Amino acid sequence: MAPIKDEAIVLRRLEYSETSQVLVFFAREHGRQRLIAKGIKRGTKKKAAVGIDLLERGDIMFLPCQRKAHGLGTLTEWRQNDAYLGLREDLRRIYAGQYAAEITAAMTEDGDPHPALFDALTAVLDALRHTVTPKLLLIDYQQALLRDTGLWPDLTRCVICNRQAPEQRAGYFSAHQGGLVCRRCLPRVAENRLVLAAVLTALRENHYPDQTVSETFDLLDYTISQTIGRPTTMSKFITE
Ligand SMILES: [Zn+2]
User: Fold this and answer.
1) Which of 126, 134, 152, 191 could be bridged to 146 by S-S, CB 3.0 to 4.6 A?
2) What is the pLDDT of residue 90?
């Protein structure tokens, strides 16, 4: 089989042996790919090789796994296009990048392509290089991820009885139901949380005044956590 070529971002990495790594890539046209990079850390006489780091973007060539389920493919070539150095200068930006990588890996399937989401991820990593407000950028990415995976919640009406949600009012939100739930339907929904009116307005208008940023981030992180069935690991490090 001929190797497949794509562009990819490293979502996870695991040191596999002294010379090899296992990497989870998010490839633009081929989705999440778990690949072993044999000998990637073997240096030459001139330079020591350090392997491939988290959140690097590059061109990959790989041989997909022959067995369908849970196998590793093989990385045959890697050419780094961007190491996002500006992002690595500031711990808050690194954490934000790691959060984006974590939710991407958790919410996508092996081999399922999401080219628009790949572009959104490169855009957020680009923007994180310079930002002083990582949380606001991550809201954009959480939103892109939820939309691209078809899980963006309906914030306009009760998802059970269809009743229009009143504007400028707080509302109950259920991640499992996929949106708002009115008071009348609420007893039927075990998983729910109250969302402030300002946050609902911000999400509907896609405009986030300062005082809504943290609550909005938390709500979207909650939606993602409920979807994957566990709390996200990196969210507690996203402080501003
Ligand atoms: Zn209802």
Assistant:
1) 152
2) 92
